[in-house]
C-alpha cells in the first residue's frame, strides 16, 4: 500500500463534498436502514444533515474517499420526546465501477452533481481505503476535523493488509494483517467514549484481561470531541465465548471450567476498574431512581413489544423488591462496569485465557448513563443471561447446562473478589430482568427470529418460582 501522505492531499469539507452528499441523499435513504448497525430501524428516514465531510482521497483519482458524519432525520419513537437525530459515521468510496468482489459494498450510482455516473460504496469493504485509515493512525495525521492519534508506546507496522470482519456487529471492524483490529463506531455521540476510556484505564492499571488501545480517531466538532474509532491488538486465534459455548453445547459437553475461568476474568476486570476509577455508594434515593428507571424501561418495552404485556406485573415485582430494600436502608457500592457483558464479548486465547472486549455499554442507552458507576452485579447478570441465551438457542434447550455454567461463573467470581454474586439475589434478579427486557426489544428490532430466546427468560423471571 502507498502511504496516504504520498498519494493524496486531504482536505476538509469542500464544495465537492457538500454536492456529493446532495446527490447521495436518495441512495443513502434506501441503503442506510438496511445496514445491520443502523439503530433507527422501523422508522422512516426523512432527511439528512451533513455534520462533517472530509476528503481523504480526491474523487478525481481512480478511487475517491470521503469520511462522512451524517445526522439522520427520523420521526420520533412513539411516546418519546423529539430527539435531534442520530449521527452516523460513514467511509464512502467513489469509483467508476465496482469490481465484483465489492458488490456487497454498493451504495448506488450517482445520477447528478460532480460525480454524475460514478459508483459510491461502503469503503470499509475495500482494503485500500481501510489501509488509508491505518496509515493515518500510524503517522498521527490530522485532516480537517479528524485527529488520528496513537499511543507512542506501541509500534504500528506499515504495509498491513486490511480485511473487513463479517461478524454480526453493532459497529464495523477491520483487521489488519492479523495484527490489529480497528473498530469504527457507526452511531457516534459527542463526549468521552467508554470503549476507549475503560480499556485505556485498564491498561494503565496493568490489567491484561482487556486488549490495550494502540491508536484512535477523534473528531473535534462541538465543544466535546467525538471518538470515532479505536485500534487494538488483534487476538489472533482467539475464539469468542458465544461460539465456544454453542460448540460445547452441541457436543453435549460440560462448559463449567470455562465458565468458572470467565468468572475469575470478570472479577479481575472489575477489581482493576474499581481501582482505576471512582466508586460511589448508592443510597436510598439513587436506588429508588434505579428501580424507577428499570420500571420505565419495562413500560416502554411493553409498548414496543406487546408480547411482553402478560408478564408486565411479574417483571415489575423484581424492581419493586429492589425499591423495597432501598427503603429498608440497604446500600450498594457502584463502580464503572462493562455495561453489556455477554459471551460474545469474551475472547479466549489458547495461551492467555479469557479477555473482555467492547466496553461501549448497551448501544441504545445515552452515553451519560452508560458512564455512570453501577453495581458490578449488572455485568454478572449480563453473563448469567448469556449462559441462558446459549442454552435456549440450542436445538434442544439445555436448562441444566445453563444452571451449571451460571453457578460455576459465580464461583469463579467469588474466588477472586471474596464475594459471591448469589448473596445479592434481589439486585441480581432486578438486573437479569432488566437485561431480558432489553434483549426482547433488541431482538424485536434487529433479529426478530431470536425473540423466543429472551421471551422464554421473561416467562421465568416474571414467575420466580419457575427459575
Ligand atoms: N482484540 C480483538 N481480537 C480479536 N477479535 C476481536 C477483537 N476485538 C473484537 N474482536 C472481534 O470483533 C467482534 C466485534 O467486536 P466488538 O467490539 O464486540 O464490536 P461491536 O460493538 O460492533 O459488536 C467481536 O465479536 C470479536 O469476534
Ligand atoms: O455485541 P453488541 O455490543 O453489539 O451487543 C448487542 O448485540 C448482541 C447480539 O449480537 C446482544 O446479545 C444477545 O445475544 C447474544 C448472542 O448473540 C447473547 O450472548 C447475549 O447474552 C444476548 O444479550 C446484546 O444484548 C446487544 O446489546
UniProtKB/TrEMBL annotation:
One Pfam match: Mak_N_cap
E.C. number(s) listed in UniProt: 2.7.1.175
Single GO molecular function: ATP binding
Maltokinase N-terminal cap domain mapped to chain residues: 31-126
InterPro entries in UniProt: Aminoglycoside_PTrfase, Kinase-like_dom_sf, Mak_N_cap
Membrane-spanning residues: none
GO biological process: glycogen biosynthetic process
Pathway participation: Glycan biosynthesis; glycogen biosynthesis
Assigned keywords, A-Z: ATP-binding, Carbohydrate metabolism, Glycogen biosynthesis, Glycogen metabolism, Kinase, Nucleotide-binding, Transferase
Enzyme class: transferase
Catalytic activity: D-maltose + ATP = alpha-maltose 1-phosphate + ADP + H(+)
Keyword ATP-binding (UniProt): yes
Aminoglycoside phosphotransferase domain mapped to chain residues: 214-416
Family the UniProt entry places it in: Belongs to the aminoglycoside phosphotransferase family.
Assembly with partners or alone: Monomer.
Name of this protein: Maltokinase
Species, as recorded: Streptomyces seoulensis
Lineage of the species this protein comes from: Bacteria, Bacillati, Actinomycetota, Actinomycetes, Kitasatosporales
